[in-house]
């Protein structure tokens, strides 16, 4: 019985030690979350991140008219007010924020559709030597619970174009769960100009143009917990196509500036 108690105590101590180590490692990760009127979702997202040991959280609020800011502050997030509007504008402002900190920067949505438990997989991939990691709902073990037929067709079409024009091997494009090394953000930020949901497409095209190393990891997208998405399949699909065409026309400009 004494031996059994000793093993149990040792196991508990080992678990606590491992948990402390994980939390120490996770403190090197910063999570940035664009948010607009996500009062009913943001608390759960931040709580789940905290439970994983991620407490360096930056919410970029797009001038919410509900209690998004108050709730996010209540649960320990840092807040910056967005100067413009749109998800792309929010991410560009966050990437240029003086307080951007951490060896790894994770971007994710505020609607509860992305699982913080997947972040260690992103960080592990970053540690393997790549510059950016993007979540994919179409890799093996990836999945989406919120993919309409129109969105599926559009995503596959855009992925095919980007892979063709930039010799990429992406399986997913229009998805905002990703992780960056801080140096990668410094290289990317000066060239980003998107203001809306086309920003993910621009990021991963520009990454190829800059010669950054990108890999994908499987990700499961849930349905948003509450409320209605600000994304419009047709309006934002047109913006994504416009971004791809513009990047194709100006495909050499980054290389010339980067030399």
Features:
47% helix, disordered N terminus, two-stranded parallel ribbon, 10 helices, seven-stranded mixed beta sheet, 259 residues, Spore Coat Polysaccharide Biosynthesis Protein SpsA, Chain A, alpha/beta
Describe the protein's topology.
Elements: H1 2-26, E1 29-35, H2 39-51, E2 57-61, H3 68-74, E3 78-81, H4 87-95, E4 104-107, H5 119-127, E5 132-136, E6 143-144, H6 149-166, E7 178-181, H7 182-188, H8 199-209, E8 214-218, E9 220-221, H9 233-249, H10 253-258
Parallel strand pairs: 1-2, 1-4, 2-3, 5-8, 6-9
Antiparallel strand pairs: 4-7, 5-7
Helix pairs in contact: 2-3, 6-9, 8-9
Structure description:
With 259 residues, the chain is an alpha/beta fold. It has one domain: Spore Coat Polysaccharide Biosynthesis Protein SpsA, Chain A, CATH 3.90.550.10. It is 47% helix and 15% strand. The chain is built from 10 helices and 9 strands. Strands 3-2-1-4-7-5-8 form a 7-stranded mixed β-sheet, with helices on both faces. Strands 6-9 form a two-stranded parallel ribbon. Strand 1, helix 2 and strand 2 form a beta-alpha-beta unit. Helix 2 runs parallel beside helix 3. The longest helix is centred in the first third of the chain and has 25 residues. The radius of gyration is 19 Å and the shape is globular.
């Amino acid at each position: 019985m004494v031996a059994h108690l000793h093993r149990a105590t040792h196991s508990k101590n080992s678990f606590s030690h491992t948990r402390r180590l994980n939390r120490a490692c996770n403190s090197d990760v910063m999570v940035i979350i664009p948010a607009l009127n996500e009062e009913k979702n943001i608390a759960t997202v931040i709580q789940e991140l905290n439970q994983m040991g991620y407490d360096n959280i930056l919410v970029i609020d797009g001038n919410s008219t509900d209690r998004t800011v108050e709730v996010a502050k209540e649960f320990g997030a840092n807040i910056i007010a967005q100067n413009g509007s749109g998800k792309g504008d929010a991410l560009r402002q966050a990437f240029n924020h003086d307080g951007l900190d951490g060896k790894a920067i994770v971007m994710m949505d505020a609607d509860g559709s992305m699982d913080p438990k997947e972040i260690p997989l992103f960080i592990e991939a970053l540690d393997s030597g790549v510059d950016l990691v993007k979540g994919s709902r179409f890799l093996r073990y990836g999945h989406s619970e919120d993919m309409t037929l129109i969105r599926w067709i559009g995503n596959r079409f855009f992925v095919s174009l980007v892979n063709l024009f930039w010799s990429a091997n992406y399986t997913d494009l229009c998805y905002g769960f990703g992780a960056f090394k801080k140096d990668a953000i410094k290289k990317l930020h000066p060239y980003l100009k998107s203001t809306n949901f086309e920003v993910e497409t621009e990021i991963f095209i520009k990454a190829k143009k800059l010669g950054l190393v990108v890999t994908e990891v499987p990700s499961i997208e849930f349905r948003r917990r509450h409320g209605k998405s600000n994304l419009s399949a047709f309006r934002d699909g047109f913006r994504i196509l416009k971004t791809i065409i513009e990047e194709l026309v100006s495909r050499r400009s980054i290389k010339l500036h980067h030399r």
